[in-house]
Structure formats: structure tokens, C-alpha cells
Design goal:
Layout (H helix, E strand, L loop, with lengths): L6 E6 L4 E3 L6 E3 L12 H15 L8 E9 L4 E4 L9
Antiparallel strand pairs: 1-4, 2-3, 4-5
Length: 89
């Protein structure tokens, strides 16, 4: 069954973590208190840019991706619609 995106999430590459909208920290997707859905791409991009300014010495070294996402109430976790795959299994 196809899952539609209901927002955007900021993913840390090569991890299963997403940026929490309220805490401004990365948390595993299975964390029950995670609030990772941004209403639109510009909001997710702004949050990612703010995180990079606070945590990265070089803006090019961020390792972040903005991906379409949703929340599955049955699984009770965020679902990445098009998560960024790692360069190795």
C-alpha cells in the first residue's frame, strides 16, 4: 500500500535519526516522543540550516537530508517516504 507524505523530516545521513521539531536534536525514528514532521519543505530547510549553524564548523559538513515523511498511527512511529539510502548495506 502506498503511503502519502504528510510533511517533511530532516534526516541525519547514515542513521535512523530525525530532527525533533521542538527539541532541535536528532532522535531515533522509534522514539515515542519524537515530533519530526514539518508542514512544508521551507520549514524543514530552515530548521536544518539552524541546526547546521549551531553544530557544524563548516556548513558543507552537515550530513543532513530533507525527506518526505509521515506518521503511522498503527506502528506509532515516523515513516520516511523516500529516506536517503547509505552508500553501503
Amino acid at each position: 500500500m502506498r503511503r502519502p507524505a504528510t510533511g517533511y523530516a530532516v534526516q541525519m545521513l547514515d542513521t535512523d535519526t530525525l530532527l525533533d521539531c521542538q527539541r532541535n536534536e536528532f532522535m531515533p525514528v522509534r522514539t515515542s516522543s519524537l515530533q519530526a514532521l514539518f508542514d512544508d519543505f521551507p520549514s524543514a530547510r530552515e530548521a536544518a540550516a539552524n541546526w547546521v549553524r549551531q553544530h557544524c564548523s563548516s556548513p558543507d559538513a552537515h550530513r543532513l537530508a530533507i525527506v518526505p515523511a509521515s506518521y503511522d498511527p498503527v506502528l506509532q512511529r515516523h515513516i520516511l517516504i523516500y529516506g536517503v539510502l547509505t552508500d553501503h548495506p
